[in-house]
Amino acid sequence: MNSQPRTASLERSTSESQVRVRVNLDGTGSSNISTTVPFFDHMLTALSKHSLMDLDIASTGDTDIDVHHTVEDTAIVLGQAIREALGDKAGIGRYGDALVPLDDALARAVVDVSGRPYLVHSGEPEGFEYHAIGGHFTGSLVRHVFEALTMHAHLTVHITVLDGRDPHHIAEAEFKAFARALRTAIAKDDRVHGIPSTKGAL
Is the pTM of this model over 0.90? Predict the structure, then answer.
């Protein structure tokens, strides 16, 4: 089986943001994250740590208007980088699931490296989308991040918040559950030969 690290480096520049992402799917969970959005940095660091992907991310943007553009554009490029690093997806497990608690919060994530972008996201409590986590990261951005990652990495993802009261804990449980599920889905399996699909392509 090919032991070459699965890596990708991408950049994206628009009038709203500038994003640089480097990803190593076969890393150890080390990260260097600077998006100028502190809570997002915290979530991406957790994503790296629990997925075992090495992430090097640098983003700037019009955060004087809103952090939305910088957050969403970073997630777009990260998704594209994951997709590129996956290559033909030969030898991967393809599916992963995780159930992750964080104090009062409990989140479940299921990932299929399907080649078919689809997100099912539910369970966040009423009003979560309006809460400014850390004073700047609105709860609605959590779904936006997963939408961008799912669409641009070509993943099928189901994320369900099963319990939770504290918005910070809820968001972090979601990111960690996604990370753990992704870790399993992208991992190489010595028993898998070729593409793990009856169609022969993902």
Answer: yes
Report the amino acid identity of residue 154: H
Alpha carbon distance 7, 86 (integer Å): 8
Look at residue 2 in the predicted model and tell me its pLDDT: 53
Rg of the chain over all Cα atoms, to the nearest angstrom: 16
3-state secondary structure of 97: strand
CA distance 15 to 73: 11
Q: What is the mean pLDDT of the chain?
A: 96
**Cβ 61 vs Cβ 155: under 8 Å:** no
List pLDDT tens digits, range 143-166.
999 999 999 999 999 999 999 999
Pairing of strands 54-61, 156-163: unpaired
Cα 71 to chain centroid distance, Å, stands at: 12
